[in-house]
């Protein structure tokens, strides 16, 4: 197999952080090369260097026969390197074919004037959609597609512009099992066509199924490259984390069945997405919500949090009916919501880590409008340092802008924000998406500690093993309502899926 790209001894320093320290990595034509590492290990930084977004501090990048000290986005693009982010970048209000050619519309000259070459667009669109197995008309609006179809559009877009290397960052994080299966079929097709795939994932079980080689980064350093099919997962974990991972299983002994800390009665949303939902949460209990992607679990959490209009029903927190017409009221009432859409609703982009963590206690404890003069900067700094240490947030300092953190560390900062607000009821929606295996366990332990301290915990997850290992009871959600609630002792992946799809 020929080497398409080789990164040699790359170092990347940011102020206060060494993101990559002497890292080498290469990609062959027709292979899937997985990249593993804990949150903040340097995976995204390495990929951004390959895309020409970041300039390495030192080291070289070899493309075919030429060697570069840095790539620019145009060199990277011209060579055929394409990066597909976890949060897809397709444009909803354009059609599939318009998305495929955004920024590079092919033109022809008619009467001496350049006009869009619609025939070529249609022809190329049909050909690349067939390559990714997307059975949709090219004129379909992207807003009408599912997440997995949008992802296929992104891959098709890479193919339409002659990709030689496609980097996929956590491509299965929002897909159902069936969609993952389809994606793997597409990846195998692309391999067969000689395309090199870089596959970033925190899901270890995917590695032997889809990858040929796997490289591991730890704290910005290159650990090694292994055969993806034969290397035992424990060896990969050990090289990635450097310690044994324990799993927190609920024992249920601390659940007080007689004390209800949170109750929802006959809750419905105005838009009909949530239909007459009732449940109770007991002291010390973690209640999980299983269901298919799109079954409406997040919508239920939004209604509870006042972010989606309620038509009927009531909510009780610690025995008192609470009025939650908006998220502001939810915060005031003591609710916390770690949303699944981290980038858009998780944090304030222009704020530091410390500011993000300390903003809610301030909002919660003041009757006044938030104004800069009222902020206590010493307290803010103290909050930042306290939670950075408590949740082991990997950052140069709590004063760093939150957008500079790796995805997983941003998630920890979001959890810190709600812990700092001393909330009473925590809603965790897909809390470990994009989170590494070590940090996942830390998040489960935080959830268990909160439950033990008498806080209510609701957890939505599409990872059934995670729900089974963390939750005391699991509500199976289907088409906007709860179809069944199973105690952990009776719940299995099979019976949950059976109820969710019946
Ligand atoms: N623009 C930046 N400015 C400062 N530091 C940065 C910047 N980008 C990344 N870093 C730091 O570099 C380190 C590596 O981050 P990177 O995003 O590459 O990690 P990752 O392995 O992709 O993690 P994750 O699995 O959480 O996405 C982190 O400590 C991060 O805070």
TrEMBL record:
<keyword id="KW-0677">Repeat</keyword>
<keyword id="KW-0813">Transport</keyword>
<feature type="domain" description="ABC transporter">
    <location>
        <begin position="255"/>
        <end position="499"/>
    </location>
</feature>
<protein>
    <submittedName>
        <fullName>Cytochrome c6</fullName>
    </submittedName>
</protein>
<dbReference type="InterPro" id="IPR050107">
    <property type="entry name" value="ABC_carbohydrate_import_ATPase"/>
</dbReference>
<keyword id="KW-0547">Nucleotide-binding</keyword>
<dbReference type="InterPro" id="IPR027417">
    <property type="entry name" value="P-loop_NTPase"/>
</dbReference>
<dbReference type="InterPro" id="IPR003593">
    <property type="entry name" value="AAA+_ATPase"/>
</dbReference>
<dbReference type="InterPro" id="IPR003439">
    <property type="entry name" value="ABC_transporter-like_ATP-bd"/>
</dbReference>
<feature type="domain" description="ABC transporter">
    <location>
        <begin position="5"/>
        <end position="244"/>
    </location>
</feature>
<dbReference type="Pfam" id="PF00005">
    <property type="entry name" value="ABC_tran"/>
</dbReference>
<keyword id="KW-0067">ATP-binding</keyword>
<keyword id="KW-1003">Cell membrane</keyword>
<keyword id="KW-0762">Sugar transport</keyword>
<dbReference type="InterPro" id="IPR017871">
    <property type="entry name" value="ABC_transporter-like_CS"/>
</dbReference>
<keyword id="KW-1278">Translocase</keyword>
<keyword id="KW-0472">Membrane</keyword>
């Amino acid at each position: 197999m020929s080497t398409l790209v080789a990164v040699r001894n790359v170092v990347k320093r940011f102020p206060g952080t060494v993101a990559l320290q002497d890292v080498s990595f290469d990609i062959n034509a027709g292979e899937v090369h997985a990249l593993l590492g804990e949150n903040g290990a340097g995976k995204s930084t390495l990929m951004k260097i390959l895309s020409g977004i970041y300039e390495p501090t030192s080291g070289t990048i070899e493309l075919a026969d030429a060697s570069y000290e840095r790539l620019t986005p145009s060199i990277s693009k011209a060579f055929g390197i394409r990066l597909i982010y976890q949060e897809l970048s397709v444009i909803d209000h354009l059609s599939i074919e318009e998305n495929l050619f955004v920024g590079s519309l092919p033109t022809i000259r008619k009467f001496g004037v350049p006009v869009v070459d619609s025939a070529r667009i249609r022809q190329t669109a049909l050909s690349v959609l067939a390559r990714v197995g997307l059975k949709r008309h090219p004129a379909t609006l992207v807003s009408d597609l599912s997440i997995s179809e949008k992802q296929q559009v992104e891959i098709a877009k890479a193919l339409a512009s002659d990709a030689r290397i496609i980097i996929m960052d956590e491509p299965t994080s929002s897909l159902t099992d069936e969609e993952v299966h389809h994606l793997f079929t597409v990846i195998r097709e692309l391999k067969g066509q000689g395309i090199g795939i870089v596959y970033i994932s925190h899901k270890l079980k995917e590695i032997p199924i889809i990858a040929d080689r796997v490289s591991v980064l730890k704290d910005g350093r290159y650990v090694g490259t292994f055969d993806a099919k034969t290397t035992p997962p424990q060896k990969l974990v050990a090289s990635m984390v450097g310690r044994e991972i324990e799993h927190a299983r609920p024992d249920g002994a601390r659940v007080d069945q007689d004390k209800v800390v949170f109750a929802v009665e006959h809750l419905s949303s105005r838009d009909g997405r949530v239909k007459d939902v009732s449940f109770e949460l007991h002291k010390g209990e973690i209640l999980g919500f299983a269901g298919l992607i799109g079954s409406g679990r997040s919508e239920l959490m939004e209604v509870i949090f006042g972010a989606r209009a309620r038509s009927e029903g009531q909510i009780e927190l610690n025995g008192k009916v609470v009025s939650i017409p908006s998220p502001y009221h939810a915060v005031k009432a003591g609710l916390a919501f770690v949303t699944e859409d981290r980038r858009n609703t998780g944090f304030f982009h222009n704020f530091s880590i410390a500011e993000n963590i300390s903003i809610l206690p301030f909002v919660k404890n003041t009757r006044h409008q938030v104004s800069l003069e009222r902020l206590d900067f010493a307290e803010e700094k103290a909050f930042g340092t306290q939670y950075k240490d408590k949740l082991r947030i990997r950052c140069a300092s709590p004063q760093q802008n939150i957008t500079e953190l790796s995805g997983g560390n941003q998630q920890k900062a979001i959890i810190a924000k709600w812990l700092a607000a001393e909330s009473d009821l925590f809603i965790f929606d897909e809390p470990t998406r994009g989170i590494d295996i070590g940090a996942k366990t830390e998040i489960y332990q935080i959830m268990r500690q909160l439950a033990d301290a008498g806080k209510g915990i609701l957890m939505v997850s599409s990872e059934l093993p995670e729900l089974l290992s963390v939750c005391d009871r699991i509500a199976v959600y289907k088409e906007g309502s709860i179809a069944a609630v199973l105690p952990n002792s009776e719940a299995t992946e099979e019976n949950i899926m059976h109820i969710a799809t019946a």
